[in-house]
Amino acid sequence: MAVTMRDVAKAAGVSPASVSFALRGDPRIKQETARHIIDVANRMNYSVNITAKSLRSGRTGVIEAAVFQLDRPFYAQLLAGVSNAAFDRGIQAVAQQISTGKVGHEKSILEKVANKFCDGVILSAGGLSDAEIIELSRGKPVVLLDDQSYQGPFDSVFTPCENGAEAAVTHLFEIGCERVGLVGTDFMPADQACRSMRVGDRRLIGCHRAFERHERTLTKADTIQLFDWGTDDAYRAVSRRIEEGDFPFDGLFCMTDAIAFGALRALREHGIGVPDDVAVIGFDGVREGSYSAPTLSTIAVDIDKLAREAVDILCERIEEGRCGAPAMPKHVTVGYEVLVRESSNRTR
């Protein structure tokens, strides 16, 4: 027979209400009492009946984080942060990958959010319009990651794309690089990039700024395009440019750290020294960068802050009983640090 909340209350010598407060982290109960109750509940293998809880409150205590790819270092670290932030609030987070290559998969995910399983979703929704998100979410709160509509109707948290990319390219010029290449972006003029909210285009805007500040003009010849922002694709693309004799660069800014890992491998296999021949800097600040050989310089985004802001905003909307997009959406951009490591350290 399943252990009930009343069983836990009797064993702990408290009321069922106190057990409820303790298990959801309610501040109205003393910390030492809460710890005692949780210890008792764990010893009795008590688990919350999500279905019953949902029927009583209209909430499940579960949120969903839907991102492009679960196997990328940035998203893996972000999801860990989301999980930790949710746990601190006494709720659970589940993860979903949306880039399966199947048409309509993003729509399917949002349609499922509209059922009783999740109270709300943190979403990377590159392929959906604002109107589609509004329709499919059916009033459930949604927080977007790097929203692709300018100051759109949804709460959103952003990586520091423009300023971070500008800082990365500026760093390469300041350490003496004369020909900086960009790995992972499709070239477009600055005025065209400014009309886009895609992550790659926003980072391209920052690159244009840095080139202009150093009296240079960014052209298509300065870019190495990728089919996919992955390590494998970056390795193949950089290797191909080197083998074709079309690699004039002494500095590389990679649009993500995952891209940078592929570029580093390609450079090493072709006998090109890093950082003396080519300095390399990435973007994201994933933990793996401190273990690559050489260690990776990067624009270190405050990933934990990004996750916590998304969870906090979503929980706030859930508590409000928000239906549909908020009248005054929040748009938050997190900070970054230029983290100089071996791959661009020319002061040795």
Automatic annotation (TrEMBL):
Keyword match DNA repair: no
Family annotation (SUPFAM superfamilies): lambda repressor-like DNA-binding domains, Periplasmic binding protein-like I
Listed SMART domains: HTH_LACI
InterPro entries in UniProt: HTH_LacI, LacI/GalR-like_sensor, Lambda_DNA-bd_dom_sf, Peripla_BP_I
Statement: the UniProt record of this protein carries the keyword Transcription regulation: yes
Gene Ontology molecular function terms on file: DNA-binding transcription factor activity; transcription cis-regulatory region binding
One Pfam entry name: LacI
Domain HTH lacI-type, first and last residues per copy: 3-57
Domain of life: Bacteria
Keywords: DNA-binding, Transcription, Transcription regulation
PANTHER family membership: HTH-TYPE TRANSCRIPTIONAL REGULATOR GALS (PTHR30146:SF109), LACI-RELATED TRANSCRIPTIONAL REPRESSOR (PTHR30146)
Descriptive protein name: Regulatory protein LacI
